[in-house]
Amino acid sequence: MKKWFMMFLLLIISMSQSFQTVSAAEVKKWEEKAKMPEARINAGSAVVDGKVYIIGGAGTKKSSENQTFMYDPKTNEWTRKADMPTLRSSVKTVTIGHKIYVLGGRSEKGIGVNTLEVYDTKTDTWEKMEDIPFVSPYSPEYLYVGAIGKKIYVVGFDFALGTIPALKKNTYSYDTEEKKWEEKKGQNFPYHVWKGNSVVLNNKLYVFSGHNYSLKEVYEYDPVKDNWSAKKGGYIREAPSSVVYNGKILMTGEAKQIVVYDPKTETNTRIPVPQANYGRKGHSAVIVDDTLYLIGGTIEHGEGANDNYHTTIALSLKDLGIQPDSNTGDKDDKTTTSPESGNDKDKNTDAKDKPTDEKQPSDAKDKPTDEKQPSDDGDALLVITMVGGLQKEYQLSMKEVNDFIKWYETRDRGEGKGFYAIDEHDNNKGPFESKKDYVVFKNILMFEVNKYK
Predict the structure, then answer these.
(1) pLDDT at 118 over 70
(2) How does 15-28 read in b/e, with b if 16+ C-beta sit within 10 Å?
(3) In degrees, to the nearest 5, what angle opens at C-alpha 404 toward C-alphas 399 and 409?
(4) What is the pLDDT of residues 72-104, one digit of tens each?
(5) What is the 8-class DSSP label of residue 43?
């Protein structure tokens, strides 16, 4: 009887798991890259124009740091940049255009802060902005952020603070153009999420349940409806990192496995990969050109930065078999210009997912129209910013720029191909006759045209 009972119990447990497991027989090993100048844990991270930025975090000697380091994957070199004005660890970062917004975190005194500072990657300068308008700062273990269009959405939750009516206001947005905060009038974030993580996909903010052992859920915020909803398929792991790839969310709570979350099916897939120096708790994860980079961190049960984790390790995502959505464009669509590189969705998906309100969306006024289209004379610098923050620059003729604008306007109306080929011209490196970048429409956050005199 006991034997049958145990078999039945194991069957129930296996049925309750939302995970699938993928073989890693052909997966390549992690590749070690140049060491970061200093060990870091719980640092902010961002990608701009193919370069990786690591900001703040805790070091081996201090619990809060303010250094900014830049890593160039092409040269495999680290560079020290301008220091952040305040010392902070466990900061939250989002990228809009060529600027990195650093929010919240823990001060050198060990308390949560409402600080917002912006780093301009072009000028290597910092600017302090208006603080997050929380009545009382949330601990960074309860703070989650994401950028949708040109607005940053910030949410916090704490049982202790949530019992005080004045402190229940926990969802705000920040307009990066008007530089103003707005309290969201819809549903507040009602869930208890400790040491989780957040990411934006398809114009929605996702918060994962982190270290709450009783919860395995994903929470989705819709800025159009201004409300939260609980989804299935959560992943329990303390202080994980998450990135977007091929329309799915990759969680890297451990370097020995990657969990791929599909928001459409609300399921996870575990992809085992060769273990790399244990779990790397508190690391930073970024994607550049189909390559996943894990930077810094510490041993799985450690608390401070570890000198053994100076290394940057990299893994090609092409080897993991993470396929784009089956109902998206041509199977051969590829792009090397966005962390969310993948195929185009159904024609109406982009218009349907873009947040709207009574006012004109901030990204709508950036879209070019035929009336404002410049002439074909001369040359220009075309700068394309992707949803994940990656920024690409192209030296093109104005005729090529206008051809790109015409394609963008056509695709914005739901017509034409979901991708566009841009000739690299003089940027072509290697023994190649030619080189083109294939840019996917749904991955474009914004673009700008800088015409030369």
Answers:
(1) yes
(2) eeeeeeebebeebe
(3) 125
(4) 999 999 999 999 999 999 999 999 999 999 999
(5) -
